[in-house]
Amino acid sequence: MVLAAASVALAAGCTAQAAGSGGGSGSPTNAPATSAPTPTDAPTGDGKAPSPSNSTAAPTETPSESAKPKALMDDGDETEQVRELQARLRQLGYFDRAPTGFYGTMTAGSVKAFQKKQGLPRTGSVDEETWQGLLGASRKPTADELKPSTTNQLDTPDARCMTGRVLCISKESRTLAWMIDGKVVSSMDVRFGSENTPTREGIFTVERKVRQDWSRLYHTPMPLSMYFSRGQAVHYSADFAARGYNGASHGCVNVRDRAKLTTLFDQVKVGDKVVVHW
Q: Which residue has the higher pLDDT, 142 or 42?
């Protein structure tokens, strides 16, 4: 046992401590062979076998289990209940992205923030008390809240988007919402031009549509283009789909979900309003 303990300590980078004076078993090597037996080795007066030595260690009691409440959801879980958890936390401002259904470090941090606000133990896992507190503080998520159409959360629509048929494009939330009479029909993530080639803001109209187009200025494909301000258009970008927000457009409104944009392209008409705002 001493050798095993020493090996473990060395493997952990610790200095192995010498065994204590009572840690070994057996007699010292220099003890006389004819030494008298200890009193506990002697037979008892009634001839029965001696009782075990008092030096024998009593079995260690197993410590009682922690009183920590049972976790309903914890790190590594991947369920629809976790998706609902994330959606409810997002309603309250503790989770800032689309629900995934996977319980990772970001979800644990959001749960801790909620627990702190509620005066609950900050475990980062969801027990019954935490879950009931969250149910009371939030509402049942809608289908779009559970599986949002955009990674970025839509902000409150600009007032100019509330009537008619509008491509409502927010630079703040980096989203495009296709709206009809104040209702969101579909939405998608978008990115804009860089500081040197900014996307113009204001109220425009769809001037023309080109299903397969090519930028003669920048020599790049522009599928599903809907032009709204001279050369600036809403169009699909393979670069946005591959690199995300690590890149930028040359002033156009890039969309990375081609399937959604294809559906939108077929619905939008020349003359429909376009609002680009912060």
A: 142
Give residue 27's Cα distance to chain centre: 60
Place of tokens 């902000």: 155
Reported pTM: 0.56
3-state secondary structure the chain: CHHHHHHHHHHCCCCCCCCCCCCCCCCCCCCCCCCCCCHHHCCCCCCCCCCCCCCCCCCCCCCCCCCCCCEEECCCCECHHHHHHHHHHHHCCCCCCCCCCECCHHHHHHHHHHHHHHCCCCCCCEEHHHHHHHHHHCCCCCHHHHCCCCCCCCCCCCHHHCCCEEEEEECCCCEEEEEECCEEEEEEEEECECCCCCCCCEEEECCEEECCCEECCCCEECCCEEEEECCEEEEECHHHHHHHHHCCECCCEEECCHHHHHHHHHHCCCCCEEEEEC
Q: What are phi and psi of 102, to 5 degrees?
A: -105, 130
pLDDT band at 149; cut points 50, 70, 90: confident
pLDDT band per the 50, 70, 90 thresholds, residue 21: very low
Residue 187 has pLDDT above 90, yes or no: yes
- How many CB atoms are closer than 10 A to CB 140? 11
